[in-house]
Design brief:
134 residues; mainly alpha; 0% strand
Length: 134
């Protein structure tokens, strides 16, 4: 694939309140992209936490700010390599890594797409995991 084949992601913020339109776009494009769906500061904190773990695993250049994400090219590995698996498992252990997928904003969009939103309840009450983390 060349860079000429790449196109900008289609934003879906304009149809966020329309479940049928979101389903159609998901069927057509295979994804939904929302700007600012999640709090950028929360995402930056998660990024820093993940990159700090990666730095400890040797993937990010030591002595640099992990948030800069400067890759240590000597540490290249792929899925299945023990050096990859060990660091990946450490990232996967981060609670914030899992919490982000279960935050109310994500749950709300997913439930609207699936058509199972219950207007009389909140995202927190519909997701036991979210309830536990708040």
């Amino acid at each position: 694939m060349s860079t000429q084949d790449l196109t900008a992601l289609v934003e879906s913020n304009d149809i966020q309140g329309d479940a049928m339109a979101m389903r159609r776009r998901l069927d057509d494009d295979g994804y939904l992209f929302f700007r600012q769906l999640l709090n950028p500061e929360r995402l930056l904190m998660l990024r820093r936490e993940m990159l700090t773990v990666m730095q400890r695993g040797g993937w990010i250049v030591r002595g640099t700010d992990p948030a800069d994400g400067i890759a240590c090219l000597d540490a290249r590995s792929t899925e299945g390599d023990p050096s990859y698996t060990n660091v990946y498992h450490d990232v996967y252990k981060l609670q914030a890594f899992h919490e982000i997928a279960h935050c109310p904003e994500v749950i709300d969009v997913m439930e609207r797409i699936r058509g199972c939103t219950n207007d009389s309840s909140t995202a927190e009450s519909r997701s036991p995991l979210v309830s536990e983390i708040h």
